[in-house]
Task: inverse folding
């Protein structure tokens, strides 16, 4: 589904992402862990095309998307939920959702996608006409994920979806991701500081430090191997 | 009472023009955070083009249509060629538009001369609230409603608003943000050219729109530079208010009154009477 080879992204002299290689199988949930400033967000922003890669290659389902801008990667089935959600607070909940599917021509299918997202996140269904600025943190995150799902992605990139949310809401969001994978075969690349909740649904975990992959292992191993946990995850 | 009614109706007619030109400023400000000081120059060039077409064909409406198209093209070209290269520098973009204003006015003088030429009204302009005044108000009302509906109720409008409010999020939703900015500049400048066609008669000369532009900018500040509906209302209020000043106090006080209104609004409600504030939460 996603093959990343030797990807490097720089901000001036800083190598935010440094020769990262990742392979994600279709239908897999991969957790990218690491401290603040490890390059996790930059990695996702580069894959989605919001930021230009310096070198390396990103292949998605056999297509080279390395230099493809974000407005085109979304048309290839890639959706990013950025840190903080990227909800447009000046628009209503419904407008945010509709925006996510606007590029797709099929009107009937857009309406169907809206119904599905509303079923997935009932709190959104009752607030469709409200400005997104009136939503709580958890509802905003639901809206952000809902907006991404409106484009019917095959690969979903999530940047710290649990940030600032109550544990119960985080658990609910993780459950939704797991269900989506089961029902639609969605592939997920999940960036988290909250390693425990990310690994609870992930198949594979990898740790990023100073822009480099320092460790990759099955999620189960990461959760149970005390040495690895202490060394890389700090719990 | 009769005088009051006349002043009100005349104020509505001139206010319509301030609304339209103000609206063109707001559309661009919302999309790119730039006050487009070249707007009156786009309208001026468009009106001169209409003038030349009128001279050549003897009709009015072909030139009118050409002016709107020319306005849109000028706006789009300016966004692509001059504003986009300096888009990361707000002050730079404003200076570009100021420079463009001066250059285009000078070019207009060179091509069409600085002497006033007579410029036709669309309809009979004689009498209080003449057919032409009705046309002015109706044209602006239809345009304003059209622009508001476009923003509020169409997919294109949703894309344009998304691109203006949050470019990254818009891109992630597949919106071609650059294209939306170009479309916004084109739309705004077409509206500005409409305002120019309505404001120019009876004479056209390179500085003919300077006064109207000052009032339009005042209308936009009164209504909130971020707020299309507020600016439309602001334009009409300003037109009527200045008409009263002119009728009851004397026409020499109009410019002063406009500046006074601007200063008072900025002091009391810096975001405009209906502004929601320029600071945005992230």
Result:
């Amino acid at each position: 589904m996603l093959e990343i080879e030797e990807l490097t992204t720089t901000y001036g002299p800083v190598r935010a992402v440094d020769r990262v290689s990742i392979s994600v199988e279709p239908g897999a949930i991969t957790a990218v862990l690491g401290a603040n400033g490890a390059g996790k967000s930059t990695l996702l922003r580069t894959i989605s095309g919001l930021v230009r890669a310096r070198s390396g290659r990103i292949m998605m389902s056999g297509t080279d998307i390395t230099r493809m801008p974000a407005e085109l990667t979304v048309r290839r089935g890639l959706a990013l939920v950025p840190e903080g959600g990227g909800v447009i607070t000046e628009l209503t909940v419904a407008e945010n959702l509709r925006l996510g599917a606007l590029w797709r021509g099929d009107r009937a299918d857009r309406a169907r996608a809206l119904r599905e997202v509303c079923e997935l996140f009932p709190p959104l269904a009752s607030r469709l006409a409200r400005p997104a600025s009136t939503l709580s943190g958890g509802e905003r995150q639901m809206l952000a994920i809902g907006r991404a799902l409106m484009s019917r992605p095959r690969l979903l990139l999530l940047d710290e979806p649990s940030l600032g949310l109550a544990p119960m809401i985080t658990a609910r969001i993780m459950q939704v991701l797991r269900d989506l994978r089961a029902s639609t075969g969605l592939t997920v690349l999940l960036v988290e500081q909250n390693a425990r909740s990310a690994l609870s649904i992930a198949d594979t975990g990898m740790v990023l430090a100073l822009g480099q992959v320092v460790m990759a292992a099955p999620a189960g191993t990461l959760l149970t191997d005390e040495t690895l946990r202490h060394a890389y995850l700090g719990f | 009472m009769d005088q009051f009614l006349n002043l009100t109706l005349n104020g509505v007619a001139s206010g319509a023009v301030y609304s339209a030109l103000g609206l063109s400023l707001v559309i661009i400000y919302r999309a790119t955070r730039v006050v487009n000081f070249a707007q009156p120059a786009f309208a001026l060039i468009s009106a001169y083009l209409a003038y030349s077409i009128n001279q050549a064909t003897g009709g009015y409406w072909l030139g009118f249509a050409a002016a709107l198209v020319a306005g849109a093209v000028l706006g789009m070209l300016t966004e692509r060629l001059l504003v986009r290269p300096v888009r990361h520098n707000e002050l730079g973009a404003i200076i570009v538009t100021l420079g463009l204003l001066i250059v285009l006015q000078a070019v207009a003088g060179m091509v069409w001369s600085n002497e006033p030429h007579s410029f036709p009204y669309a309809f009979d302009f004689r009498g209080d609230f003449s057919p032409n005044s009705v046309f002015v108000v109706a044209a602006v009302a239809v345009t304003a409603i059209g622009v508001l509906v476009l923003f509020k109720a169409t997919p294109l409008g949703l894309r344009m608003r998304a691109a203006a409010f949050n470019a990254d999020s818009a891109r992630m939703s597949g919106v071609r943000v650059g294209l939306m900015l170009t479309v916004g500049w084109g739309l705004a400048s077409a509206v500005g050219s409409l305002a120019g066609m309505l404001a120019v008669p009876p004479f056209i000369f390179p500085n003919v729109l300077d006064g109207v532009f000052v009032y339009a900018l005042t209308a936009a500040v009164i209504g909130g530079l971020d707020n299309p509906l507020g600016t439309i209302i602001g334009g009409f209020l300003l037109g009527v208010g200045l008409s009263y000043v002119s009728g009851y106090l004397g026409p020499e006080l109009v410019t002063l009154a406009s500046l006074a209104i601007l200063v008072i609004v900025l002091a009391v409600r810096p975001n405009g009477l209906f502004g929601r504030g320029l600071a945005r939460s992230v």
Remarks:
- The first strand of chain B starts at residue 117 and ends at 118.
